[in-house]
Amino acid sequence: MAEFNFATESTRFECTRCASCCSLDVLLSDRELHELGKDADMKWRTTRKVMAGSGLVCCLLQLHSCSVYGSRPKLCRVYPFFALAVAELELFHIEIPGTAVRVRGEDGEEYVLTYDDRCPGIGHGRTNDWSEIVSTVLSHLKEFKATP
Ligand code: SF4
Ligand code: SF4
Asked: What is the pTM assigned to this prediction?
């Protein structure tokens, strides 16, 4: 069974701009695929990858910075966090610790936040605007479902 790192009120994050997440596959909505055009990989629904050093990275990464930072894909905005519906986790009998942050989404559902602990920004900086992260994830899922 998948192991989750649940965010708590004491979970801190500040991006160190290491760019290591720009090697990961970001699932794009249809709107994002359309807007990114030639920079999107239509087959895998992610940004196109190019060789850099010994590995593949997003083609939009230039000089160690995102060249579309202001309009970057929504899942890039929320990384290393993601929101999961409490009801879905319960359906799969996944235990949610009592300390996990819970946020009521605009759709009325309750969400918890999980994070990717490979991100070196975890444990640094400030606390997070959990509602904003949930809102961004929900808006991404809506765009994803709204298109065929
Ligand atoms: S892996 Fe984490 S710290 Fe590094 S750029 Fe991505 S979000 Fe920032
Ligand atoms: S769009 Fe920007 S933030 Fe997202 S993976 Fe590409 S370079 Fe990184």
From this structure: 0.91
Mutate to test the pocket of ligand 1, among 5, 13, 14, 18 (most ligand atoms within 8 A of CB): 18
- Give the rounded percent of residues in the chain with a pLDDT score beyond 70: 96
Give the ligand at the shortest distance from the Cα of 72: 2
The answer to whether residue 8 scores a pLDDT higher than 80 is yes
Task: Identify the band that residue 126 occupies on the pLDDT scale cut at 50, 70 and 90.
Answer: confident
Q: In this structure, which residue's CA is closest to atom 7 in ligand 1?
A: 15
Burial group, residue 8, by CB count within 10 angstroms (0-12, 13-18, 19+): middle
Question: How far is 74 from 58, CA to CA, in rounded Å?
Answer: 15
Closest C-alpha residue for ligand 1 atom 2: 119
Provide the pLDDT for residue 128.
Answer: 83
